[in-house]
Amino acid sequence: MEKKIKICFVSPKAYPVFNPACNSVFGGAEVDIYHIATELAKDPAFAVSCIVADYGQPVSETIENVRMIKSLTFRESQLAGAIKVWQAMKLADADRYFIKTASFGTFLTALFCKLKKRQFIYRSAHTDECDGTWIRKNRFAGLLFKWSLKKAALVFVQNQSDKLNLKKTFMIDPVVIPNAHRIKIDEHKDRKHILWTGRSVASKQPEIFIELAKNNPQYQFVMICQKATNDNNYQRLAKLACDITNLELIERVPFSQIHTFFEQALAFVNTSTAEGFPNTFIQACIASTPILSLTVNPDGFLEKFDCGLCANSDQNKLNPCLQQLLENFDHYHTTTRNYALENHNIEKVVRSYILHLGN
User: Fold this and answer.
1) Which one-letter DSSP state was computed for residue 13?
2) How many CA atoms lie within 13 Å of 251's alpha carbon, on the beta-carbon side?
3) 8, 48, 127, 220: which could form a disulfide with 193 (CB 3.0–4.6 Å)?
4) What's the pTM?
C-alpha cells in the first residue's frame, strides 16, 4: 500500500469554520483553509490534519476526514502559545506544513520545518503581504516573514497581481491558485437587501457601508459584522448602525448559514482598503449576486468577467454605482454565477493543489 502524503494546516482560528457550534470569530483565510483541507481529505493519497486553537474541544478529533489538533489559547503569552503550537506540529508528524496569513506563526512553522526537515508551504492572504506593505509596517516581524518565505518549498498566491508583486519584492516566483468554494445549487430566493459581511477591523471600513445605508433609505441593508479580536470600538460601530432604521446589524452568522444571506441580496458591498481575493466575492458570485467594491478589484475581474462595479476608491461613486447595479440586476444575475462556476469551484481548484502537493 502506497504511503499517504501527510499534510498539516496551521490555522488556529479555523476551528469555528469546521465546527459551526463553536461561536467564535474567523476570517476569509480560515474559510480558504477549510475548503482546501476538507477537499484534499477526500483524496485517498492524502492524510490531512489541521492545528487549531483551544476552544474547549478534545485534544484530537476528526471533522470531515480532517484530524483537528488542539494547541494554544488566545489568553496566554506568545511564548506559551508558541510552545503549544510546536507540540501540536510534532503531534501531527506531517511531511508538509501549510500556513496562510503573515504572522509570528509563519516564522514558527517555517522554523519547525527547517529543523525537522519537513516542507514548509505558504499561501498569501492579503495584498499587503506581497507588495512589501506588511513588512514596512512590521519591521522585526517583517524580517522573520521574509526569512520564512525564502525557506518555503511552495508559495501560493490568490491572483496575478500578487504574484508579480511577490516576485518583485521577494524574488520568489509563486503559484497562482484562486480561492474556491463548493458551488451550491442555484436556488431562486426573493431578493430583499443590500449586504455587507466581514470582521470589524479598521481596514474593512464598515462605517462606509453604514453611510451608504443612510444615504439610501429606500432600500434595506444588512451588515453581518463579527467583532474582531481586540476590537475596543465595536460598541461605537454598533451604535452607529442601530441609528439607521433601514439597516440591520447581525454580529455573527455561522459559516454554514451565510449563503442564504447572499442568495437574498440584491448586491454585495465591499468597503475594504485592500485584500487578496475576498471569499465574500466568490460567495456573492455563487449566489448570482452582483458586487459593488469601493477599492478591491483583483486583476480587474469585476469588469473583465462582468461581476459588478468598482468605485476606484472614490466613496462619492458608491451611490451611482449601486443604482447602476440594481438597474442591471438581471444581467449580473447570470454573469456572476457563470464566473464562479468556471473559476472558483473547489472540485476544480483542488486539482491544482494536488498537482503541486502530490510531488
Assistant:
1) G
2) 10
3) 220
4) 0.87
Whether 2 has a pLDDT exceeding 80, the answer reads: no
Distance CA 64, CA 30 (A): 15
Distances (CA, A) of 207 to 173, 202, 358: 37, 9, 44
Could you report the per-residue pLDDT of 260-278, keeping only the tens digit for each?
Answer: 999 999 999 999 999 989 9
d(CA 135, CA 129): 7
Q: For residue 118, what is its C-alpha cell? A: 519537513
Residues 24, 30, 33, CA angle at the centre, nearest 5°?
145
* CA 321 from centre of chain: 25
- What distances in angstroms separate CA 173 from CA 84, 124, 180, 217, 282, one per listed residue? 32, 13, 21, 48, 25
CB 178 within 8 A of CB 349: yes
For 167, counting Cβ atoms within 10 Å of its Cβ (0-12 exposed, 13-18 middle, 19+ buried), the class is middle
Residue 327 near residue 281, CB atoms below 8 Å: no
> E strands within the chain?
5-10, 46-52, 60-63, 66-70, 96-100, 119-123, 154-157, 175-176, 193-199, 221-226, 247-250, 265-270, 291-293, 308-310
Distance CA 207, CA 202 (A): 9
Secondary structure of residue 108 in the 3-state scheme:
helix
